[in-house]
Write a structure and sequence with these properties.
Elements: H1 10-51, E1 55-59, E2 65-72, E3 76-80, H2 83-93, E4 98-103, E5 106-111, H3 113-126, E6 130-132, E7 139-141, E8 145-149, E9 154-159, H4 170-179, H5 184-187
Antiparallel strand pairs: 1-2, 2-9, 3-8, 4-5, 6-7
Length: 207
Amino acid sequence: MSEQPTAPESTFRDSVTKLAALGALLDEVKAAYAEARTDVQHHLNGQYTASGTTKVDALLPGGTKVGSVSRTGGEVAAQIVDTDAFTAWVRDTFPTEHVIDIVPMQVRTSVRPAWTAQALAAMTAAGVPRYVDEDTGEVHDVPGVAIRPSKAAGLRMTYTRRSKGQPLDGRELVAEAWRTGALAAHVLPTLAPTAPTPPDEDDTPAT
């Protein structure tokens, strides 16, 4: 006679229920977080372009500050986009920095790496593909070089710390606001508790 499988203990059953519930909620939170992050990044980029501002405070619906979000990255740098044009310009303008390598059946030309690095650094600092000859003071428009993004823009979220006037840090303030229902409709409407619907007068039992 085969033994019947043992029914899970109540604590085990509770753990399974908890896992199922948190897994479902996690999917909702991840999707909402990704959407919010994309939206904030878009507005941060627009704000930075318009006014140069890179930081915005994060406030609860009642106005309490819980942290701030800052735009990061978005850096630009001088980059060689046409090696042949850049090399030819260096050959004609700064011949001592131009290198000719002779290999079997082939002649290759290049620019000294150290000089290239300092020239690109100077153009990055200037914000334009122009190079100033330190000896003559002549300003050169450099062919084959463009100022392009070197690091994509991102964002960083920081939360407020506890203080004498505020015993809760930003994360704790957010958690408290969520528990009281102040954030439910703003952050995850699909997870917000639904208020019970009052019974219709016609459905009220007669006394």
